[in-house]
Amino acid sequence: MSPSRREAIAQLAALVALPLQRLEAVRGDPLDGTAADYQAGLRRGDWTAAEITARALDRCRSAGNTWHAIDALADTAPADAKAADARRRAGKLRGPLDGVPVFAKAIYDMNGLPTTGSSAEWARLFPNPVRRDALEVARLRAAGAIVLGKTAADDFAYHGNGTSSHTGQVLNPHDPTGTRTPGGSSAGSAVAVASGMAFAALGTDDGGSNRIPAQFTGVVGMKPTFGLVPRTGVIPTWPYLDTHGPLARSVADAALLLAAIAGADASDPLALTGAWDGTPLAHLRDDALAGVRLGIVEEHAPRAQMTPDALAMWDRAVSDLRAAGATAEAFAAAITRVNYRDAFTASAHDRGDVAVDADSPAPTANALLRYFAGRSDDPRAAVRLGYPAYRAFYDVLPATYEECEPLLDRPMVDDPAGRSFARSRAEVVAKLAESMRAAGVAAMVYPTMPFNATRAVDKWPDIRTPLGYGNWLGLPEVSVPAGMGADGMPALNLSIVGLPGDDARVLALAHAYEKQSRRFVPPPRK
Has 2 been annotated as catalytic? Predict the structure, then answer.
């Protein structure tokens, strides 16, 4: 029987009392290390949560502003850190995140701060602080984490460039020219953890919004199984694709964040409903790759279009996987980025179902009403007020609020196109799973993206990526740094991808790869 959430938190708290295996010795600033290093220093009395939280906030006000990575800082963080120190003295820690500074993305509600959505117009329309926490933020607080505030993103998390009309273009801290994008839309979250402003941060991912900035800034980014993390209290995007998860400098820290935020909640109609046990994520094994068969999906690694740096990092990543004990061989997956959309369409056709539509307007309209119902006394008036600014990005919605109004009350789970999409997802994933079982493959591996950060003002290279593939199929994916290029920029991340529900497994495999490769390189300190 899986433990309850309360039991799981108690088990995690017990783990904190044990000596934690340190990934690397931290000499100097604990913000440059891992949560495990930091907790070990707290136990030794080398520092307090209040001291390091103050240092983190100072770094946010200096480097954070330099990189345009911060949306807003929380006035409550210093007091929360002092409370964490008091719990430690009293022997009442809440778990391995107790006292750990973290961030959330600008589209998350946070009690005491306005929710800008990284949009200048939205910030003007809704200037008042909200009086609730998004569910994930509330779960982080319950785990004892110090939520420093909110990070900048693309407006309404819509693009992948880190361009906010509210705070400006987020900059890549590895780029001395100040011209390269950090990726997006979770740009500020990636920059904050890369630069040591926090140990981990919340991001969202509809088509790569966690994984793109993870690769471009050289950190760990995760897209969990669709529905594992309920999304209540966050400005909605595409309900049948949107997946929330962590960014961090290490896989272990990403796992700790996921353990705190995942788990069923009825407030999100599309969230998973079964029990989920996050306790294994507190103690990942360094040898998890030993004896494991991994499938190299060659359709996702377009060698002829990759730069020499990217190719060198990719080939070295595969060698690192093998050096860690894995068998890594070409795998002919039944479903790839080349055929997945056709597979969804064919599945619906064979059922005699309506056409699938991952971007169906009705679920987004309903999600927007549900979002404001949780934070406004008059949610329809709030939707009406914000509709033009929001619809400027989510332009599949009807042109005017009046035209959209009939869609607001249509439950997202009852949308015919969305229901057809969900049915096709289940059938397509079953075909992928069968091909993995037949090949004895535990997980797939491929480059997160086949190119590194472009200039923020330039278009991306015309090279297809597997980013949307993971969202359509709802697969858990961990993106881990694979190395730096000759230009001093992160060149590539390795993605380790499993079937829905395999989150703990792909995190364990990613952790073992990280231990073997040790490819994370922090950006130069400002």
Answer: no
